[in-house]
Structures are given as structure tokens and as C-alpha cells.
Design brief:
There is one protein chain. A four-stranded mixed beta sheet has the order 1-2-3-4, covered by helices on one side. It contains four helices and four strands; from the N terminus they run βαβββααα. It has a single domain, classed as 2-Layer Sandwich (Double Stranded RNA Binding Domain), CATH 3.30.160.100. Strand 3 and strand 4 form a beta hairpin. By secondary structure, the protein is of the alpha+beta class. Helix 1 packs parallel to helix 2. It is elongated.
Length: 117
């Protein structure tokens, strides 16, 4: 997986970079079914100075889908974790759709799925 991290209006410290690397590796493990060139992650972190508010914008491009999450908090680490958690939730929902789980849960559609496979 390729990724890009950008910071606006503040400089990051080692603690923040390590957190981003750890969460990126965790997300990369869930994307093993895609090749490395198909997936691109972009993280934009910015600080809004008057109120010391942090905004995280996270975009994950997978084949045929773009998943996005935005979070705003006063704590930088919490903002980053929540944005990655939202991306993770949306990614799991996407995988469930690709596995046809919503259709499989409906008894009427099970026979149609069995005939296709």
C-alpha cells in the first residue's frame, strides 16, 4: 500500500508519526487481498489555531471504491485513531458487500447465490 501524510499549520512529533505508522501497518494487514499498487491512502492533518482543534481527513482508494473519513477533536491522537477506526469500519462493510453477505442473510436469495457459484 502506498500512502501520503501531510501536515498543515503544525509540525508533527515522533509520537504522532509512530502512531500513524502503527495504524497504517494495521490497516495494510487488512488489505492483503489487494495488490500494493491498487491501494492508496492519503492522510491530511491540520490544526485550527484559535481553538487548538485538530482535523483529520483520511482517504483510502481501493479498486472501484474510494473510502473517506473526517474527524475533528481537541486531542490529536484521538482524532487520528477515530479517523482510522472509521476507515476500518467502512472497509469491513465493503468486504462484506464483495462477499455477498447482505444477500446471503436473506433466505430467499440464498438459492440464487448457490446457482451462481
Amino acid at each position: 500500500m502506498k500512502f501520503n501524510v501531510a501536515f498543515r499549520n503544525f509540525e508533527s512529533d515522533d509520537k504522532t508519526r509512530k502512531l500513524i505508522q502503527r495504524l497504517t501497518r494495521k490497516l495494510d494487514k487488512k488489505l492483503t487481498s489487494y495488490s500494493g499498487d491498487e491501494v492508496f491512502l492519503r492522510l491530511l492533518l491540520e490544526e485550527i489555531p484559535p481553538r487548538r482543534l485538530f482535523r483529520a481527513s483520511l482517504t483510502l482508494r481501493v479498486p472501484e471504491k474510494t473510502i473517506a473519513a473526517k474527524e475533528e477533536r481537541h486531542d490529536l491522537d484521538e482524532t487520528i485513531r477515530d479517523a482510522f477506526a472509521e476507515i476500518d469500519r467502512q472497509l469491513e462493510a465493503r468486504k462484506a458487500i464483495l462477499r455477498a453477505e447482505p444477500h446471503w442473510k436473506r433466505k430467499a436469495r440464498r438459492e440464487e447465490l448457490r446457482k451462481i457459484r
